[in-house]
Amino acid sequence: MAPVTATTVDTALTSSDDVATSEFRLVVNSPTPTSSTGASMPDVAAIADELMKGRISCRNFLPREVLRSTIEEVIDVARFAPSGNNIQPWEKVYCLSGDKLAVVKEALLTAFINEPEKHASQYEYYPPLEIMPQPYAERRQGFGRMLGQVLGIERTDREGRMKAAGSNYQFYNAPVALVFTINKGLRQGSWLDVGFFIQSINIAARARGLATVTQESISQYQSVLRKHLPISEDEIIAVGMSMGYPDTELVKRYALPRERREVSEIISFHHT
Prior knowledge:
This protein is an alpha+beta fold. It has 10 helices and 6 strands, in the order αββααβαααβαβαβαα. The strands form 2 sheets. It has a 4-stranded antiparallel sheet with strand order 3-4-6-5. Helix 1 (6-13) packs parallel to helix 2 and helix 3 (68-78) crosses helix 7 (188-206).
């Protein structure tokens, strides 16, 4: 078997036809991390960096089936995400596909088009834009403008904007949709832990040739989801996720600029 290299990994992860093989399944054994092929630490770092830096929020998927066993592998990896005192606050992941997904998509889109004012999330993801502090408000508005430009939708094109927004509730035609819940009795720290879990799913999925996009928007229609899924009264619907094999041609066509803050703007070192 050929040694794992950054080039090999990049080729595998950008191909819509390839599925990760044993070459890409890392085994990190303390105290000396290696890959299953005996790759050195720099190789492992290159793979990890590529998985995280190359991750995108994918909105274009192939109709290719995602095997249940693959989804179970992803969850098996993600369940080792860190959490405070190991309470593992990711209450449940509801996995939708096939006919069930089709029914839920229709119900969500109907609610979005006909009666959005009748639906509300159980929490606020953002504060209202008028009171959101800077630079966060500008970043949020800037992303909206950038997405509209990439999709070719003018700000005044209400029909086009509604159609684009409606894609959320179709889970971007991904073959798999996930719905994440958290117990309503938990606090902010546990929501952070759920974030670790979701990011672990993103990375584990990408290692297997899959792509994802996390969607807070569906939480507004939690009452619709409850009609179709056995979600208890103790659960808050946190976010959803679309998952599938990326349509690489459309991903490239509608690629968004990947603006990120510089390292020097994020970290502040204090030694003496």
